[in-house]
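Reply to dn_fold:

You asked what the input looked like. This is it:
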Amino acid sequence: MKKTRQRKILEIIRKNDVETQEDLASLLQEEGITVTQATVSRDIRELKLFKAPADDGGQKYAALEQDGENEKPMEHRYIRVLHDAFLSVEAAQNILVVKTVSGMAMAAAAALDEMEFGEIVGCIAGDDTIFAAVRTSEEAKRLANRIRKMMI
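and this is what came back:
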């Protein structure tokens, strides 16, 4: 039941601009699936749905991974945000110091977080600098090189 419901949620958000949990619950009910707001909230969390810009200027639910496919349709957007903001990256022990265009560090840090680099424990962003805590110094060096290559 849960897998069927979650597959239906992914199908619904691909076909519709769903702005709220209530909208999603209503669309599920139209499909014959009765849910509570708590269930919808839990499914959104488990599916790692997030709010993305909608064509009409509002926001809509979107998924990082398309069900049954290996590609991450939003990942290219995160790479583009990071690419547009990126100036440099250096490893300082187990901290990555990422320099960005002024005012873009928060967006770039969010992109780094969403890209789910396993080496990164967490990020702190200022106006034009991101500190990303990495598990080890060696991982920080490797990740800095990987990010540089992505930005070419």
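The chain has a mean pLDDT of 88.
Hope that clears it up.
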